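Changelog-adjacent note: as of this version, every example in the card shows the full chain rather than a window. The one below runs 444 residues end to end.
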Amino acid sequence: MKIFNQTNISKFFNLKNILADIVYFLAFFLPWQSCYIAREVFLGGAKWEYGTVCLYLTDIILILLFGVFLANKIQKLKQNPSSAKLKKFFSSWNASQKIIIALIFWTFLSILKAPDRQLAFYFAVNLTAAIALFFTVQQTRFNIKKLIIIFIVSAVLQSSLGLFQFFSQNVSKSTLLGISAKSPQNLGVSVIQASERRFLRAYGGLPHPNILGGYLSLTLLLAVYLYLMAEKKENPSLKDLLLRIFLLTSITIIFSGFIFSFSRNAWLAFGSGFLILLLNRFKSSRQGFLKIIFIFIALTLIMGLKYQEPFQERLWARNRLEKQSFQERADYTKESYYLIKKNFWTGVGAGNYTLAERLALGKDMPAWYFQPVHNVFLLSITEIGIIGGVLFWGMLILLFSLTKKFWIGAPLLILMLFDHWLWSSHFGLLLLFFILGVSEKLKD
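Full-length structure tokens:
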């Protein structure tokens, strides 16, 4: 028997199989911030997070993904080199594809207006890669259940890391994972001020607790969806039962880390998606929902009773830091209106919001003092102008309507309306378009 026969070799080097495997790798490594820092800038003695230029591990995976994807397309073209097919390809471009081309062109054009052109170019490349990721995922055949499971495993690790950070009240530095050290006593660190102490919020391996919370909220919804699908089988095999146990365990861990991120926006986003799922599927998945709701209620009661003070402060916003947070968000909104008014058509340049904010205010403050407006709609208009902003949101509306998964679309919309990281961070852009690409493949 020949192990390395021609059939096995052709299967091993099948571009379709390799393409699917790379998508699985990307799903796992997406939230991990391992990177090579190509440019690091300090403002007012503090690192300017939004001015950092990095080559991430996910960028290398993306390059491989796009390379194999193009090779697969070229291979198909060679097998059927019809000029009619090429004409059909270009003539069949729909409205969303035309809007996307215009958006990419306009984003690169904004480089000319940006005070930091290198940063603007970096953002334009990231946005282009994120959009390309959507179409690559959309046109790649893979096992959707396997992909979600891999995504869940990565989220379980992130949530476990976040839980360890919260319980130890310390974030240890890891150069390999791209994590900087954080302590509740340090300025610029996300904490909850209680009467007697400052509670460090869970970061996981991500730059901010709000990002961890948002990421876990979306993954949690996918885990709930997959569990409801698994629960539907009337005569489950041993493999099905093990999958259910794995999913319920994962839901428990992810929900715990999600809660200790203390991200109100993420709580609201998950709540909206879960409610839509509940209204649409409760009759067909009654038992599954009851088990999940029981887990959520039990964990919330346990954690709420154990850590009453930080939860109360976060919910009712009575202390100085919580009130300051709301005031800062209002200030960021006013500043964005000012910048939009001054740069209505062209914007301040892609990725240049915080630098433009610093230049406009004329304050020599530490870099963490300058933050993007917590609204992707306003942020995109501020950076790439009204034309670019309309193109971006027009594209999203078309993609949301394409996926038709409102239990995913509603949380994404909430995260974008009340925070900025789905636009302002490398991870956020990739996550947004990756989730949109995956959601179209989910069964109704």
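Structural remarks: The two ends are 44 Å apart (CA to CA).
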